Amino acid sequence: MSQTPVIRALRARAVNVPIRRPLATATGAVTHGPLVLVDLDTDAGITGVGYVVTQGGYAVKPLALLIEGLGEFVQGDPLAPFAVEQKLRRRMTLVGVQGLAMLALAAIDTACWDAAAKAAGLPLARLLGGVPRSIPAYNSNGLGIMGPERAAAQAVELLEHGFKAIKVRLGYPTVAQDLAAVRAVRGAVGDAVALMSDYNQALLPPEAESRARALDGEGLAWIEEPVRFDDYAGCARVAAAVATPIQIGENCWDVHDMRKAVDAGASDYFMPDLGKIGGVSGWLRAAALAAPVGLPLSTHLYPEVSAHLMCVTPTAHWLEHMDWADGILAEPLEIRDGHALVPERPGNGMRWNEAAVAKYLA
Ligand SMILES: [Mg+2]
Fold first, then answer.
1. pTM, to two decimals
2. CATH topology of domain 127-353
3. 292: CA distance to ligand 1 center in Å?
4. Mean pLDDT in residue range 43-53
5. Ligand 1 centroid to 249 CA: how many Å?
6. If one looks up domain 7-121+355-360 in CATH, what number appears?
7. Torsional class of 81: left (φ above 0), alpha (ψ -120 to 50), beta (otherwise)
8. Are 32 and 18 in contact (CB under 8 A)?
């Protein structure tokens, strides 16, 4: 029996990585991926890595400090992801395990699981008991609020790498403009392409219900976040009013929020965010919560690690492909025929492109 490695040090670096296709949503424009990269060193010479997305350049440096501060609590501890996660949660009880604190926990947890998988010589999916496979993915890059003509042109570009599913952002000033964008994209890509849509929490429930009804005949794969993310009753009202499935989850903190959403019947589908749900450990609990109620789970951001987790998610649905980390990865996640290929190399498959990291340091 080999010895469990011991955690030696934890480093966090803030980067702002330019995005290939800037994205305008109902909540604002995204031009850079504000990421914090974590490196967790062990005494076995193994380094685990992970990143989290802050959704704002202003937050990357504070989050990096937070991660390194929390990391001091686990220096000298055995490389045991569950034990590390539980210890940090206890330490954070009075701060609150959400917001930047939760992202910090998720980043450390993700790096811990990567190191554990590398120590075992297994890809993360195999360490967790799954088999790496190809995961159906939709191309979520681009296709922001850009008007029907530009949206139609970009939709065709997004079918690169054999993608057969894409997502259009909605929340234009009027429902007529929403419909025009959906129809322009549909006209450009044809009926065989699955078309997701996303309001990014832009509407109040009565308006959400009427817009969702107007969209109900458009054959959308789902309508995402029509209302404020934690208005579960309002979202349930929209879900009950239309046939098109309602998707939420990316802004829920931890499985405790997710449980409230599930109990309220807030949506037909759910999409935990690896960071906000609590890293790999949090995702496993989300998958366990979704299974008994048959709730299809899709991923949000973080395609590299999320692809492994879909291999051990009983109700796995769609992987969201976002390329925000591609600019700092030595081997970005490979997409073929519209599927993400879960790599067989040990760990979560991520390795930093150090020259790029140095270039984009915040
Ligand atoms: Mg969304």
1. 0.97
2. TIM Barrel (3.20.20)
3. 25
4. 97
5. 8
6. 3.30.390.10
7. alpha
8. yes
